[in-house]
Amino acid sequence: MVGIVGLGSYVPEHIVTNADMEKILDTSDGWIRSRSGIVERRFAASEQASSDLAAIAATRALEDAAMSPLDLDLIIVGTNSPDMLYPSTACLLQSRIGATNAAAFDLQSGCPGWIYATTTGVQYIQSGMYRNVLVVGAEVITRMMDPTDRGTYVLFGDGAGAAVLSSVEHGGMKAFELFADGSLAQYLTLPAGGSRRPFSRDVLRERSYYTKMDGQAVFRFSVREISRISKKVLEKAGVPLEEVDWFIPHQANLRIIQSGAQELGIPMDKTVVTIDKYGNSSAASIPVALDKIYREGKLKRGDKVLMVSFGAGMTSGAILMEWSR
Ligand code: UT7
Fold first, then answer.
1. Which of 143, 170, 197 is the endpoint of a domain?
2. Would you say the CB of residue 150 lies under 6 angstroms from ligand 1?
3. Beta-carbon neighbour count of residue 151 at 10 Å?
4. d(CA 184, CA 324)
5. Residues spanned by the domain of 151
6. Is 193 in the pocket of ligand 1 (CB under 6 A)?
7. Active site residue 101
8. Helix (H) or strand (E) holding 173
9. Mean pLDDT of all residues in 273-302
């Protein structure tokens, strides 16, 4: 079996409170808390990009695994806010941490980026091609948000989480489920800066270099996907819901988490929540939350962890893992 042998995460030091948001937008602490569950979020420093956050999380994960960067065969970075369109953030990370034996690529699949990256990384190990794969979710996603759009700007935060995947003797990854429906792409887009709408005066005027989101449509998709894809992955793993010890949903909105958990039938005391402190850090949210309960000493060997995410694409993904350490 393949499992996680090292974990690490990093959130920037700078805390942005709802009171800070009130100063720049027509919003209120009451609205943000009641509609999203967010109390504060982290913003990267102006000189930090996604690869910088990734490098800190990756170094922590390698330390936790007691491995050298030279032991890595492959690096996959799930991100929606790469340092630049190319080269990949994974290549920048590879150079930064000195993982000179590793191949490297980015994987872009919306907020489930780390779930997709982990699923992919495991396949390389199971096929026998590689032994040690670093999978990272890293975002400075706040730079993709329009500071004048209260419907998006208040929701997001920056962060990075990293895991070293390798063979394990106990537990490990039990089942994966990935899903995409590109016909719903218009729900959540960053329209400009790619080959369809390269930067231009019009793009600047329309502010289409920032994220556009149909919040309610994303909300409905997310609640439905949490329970649908979770049930599928549990069935594949042959694990009944009652045996799940930890439920780690993507941290997009506390109401989505609560409704999703309720529809699935999993109690909130098994559900990991970080949205109040970190906001929505997109592909980083699940590895950051996993690392949090790990560092708090809550994860025990044999614990069954259900991780589920949803986001731009639209995509969703779920992993059922048995903690092996
Ligand atoms: O990782 C995946 C990415 N995104 C998501 O998962 C987001 C999913 N969607 C959501 O979380 C919620 O839909 C939101 C938090 C974005 C919005 O909550 P909502 O309950 O769906 O509110 P709404 O969009 O229906 O807006 C209600 C009202 C509107 O005013 P009117 O038209 O009723 O007068 C909005 O203009 O709230 C207004 N509004 C705000 N008011 C104060 C929207 N944003 C804000 C704000 N502060 N920040």
1. 170
2. yes
3. 15
4. 37
5. 2-170
6. no
7. no
8. strand 172-180
9. 98
Q: How confident is the model at residue 156 (pLDDT cuts 50, 70, 90)?
A: very high
- SS in 3 state form for 34-81? HHHCCCEEEECCCCCCHHHHHHHHHHHHHHHHCCCHHHCCEEEEECCC
24 and 88 together in one domain = yes
For tokens 């792409």, name the residue.
Answer: 185
One domain for residues 71 and 140: yes
Predicted pLDDT of residue 133: 98
Show Cβ contacts of residue 183 under 8 Å, excluding neighbours closer than 6 positions. none
Quick one: 238 and 259 in the same domain?
yes
Compute the distance between CA of residue 68 and CA of residue 97 in angstroms, rounded to an integer. 10
Are 145 and 262 part of one and the same domain?
Answer: no
Residue 155 belongs to a domain with what CATH number? 3.40.47.10
Predicted local distance difference test score (pLDDT) of residue 249: 98
Verify whether residue 280 is a known catalytic residue. Answer: yes
**Which residue, 136, 170, 204, sits at the end of a domain?**
170
Q: Are strands 212-213 and 2-10 parallel, antiparallel or unpaired?
A: unpaired
For residues 69 and 147, state if they share a domain. Answer: yes
Residue where the block lists tokens 């490990």: 172
Q: What is the pLDDT of residues 245-268, one digit of tens each?
A: 999 999 999 999 999 999 999 999
Kindly state if the Cβ of 190 falls inside 6 Å of ligand 1. Answer: no
Mean pLDDT of the chain: 98
pLDDT of residue 161: 98
Q: CA–CA distance from 184 to each of 70, 109, 197, 315 (Å)?
A: 41, 13, 19, 9
Claim to verify: residue 189 and residue 141 sit in the same structural domain: no
Number of domains in the chain: 2
Q: Rounded to the nearest 5°, which phi and psi values hold at 200?
A: -160, 175
- Whole-number Å distance, alpha carbon 151 to ligand 1 midpoint, is 5
Q: Which of 91, 111, 132, 253 is catalytic?
A: 111
Q: Measured from the CB, is residue 131 less than 6 Å from ligand 1? A: no
Residues 152 and 205 in one domain: no
State the CB neighbour count (10 A cutoff) for residue 30: 10
CB 160 within 8 A of CB 9: yes
Looking at the CA of residue 280, tell me the nearest atom of ligand 1: 1
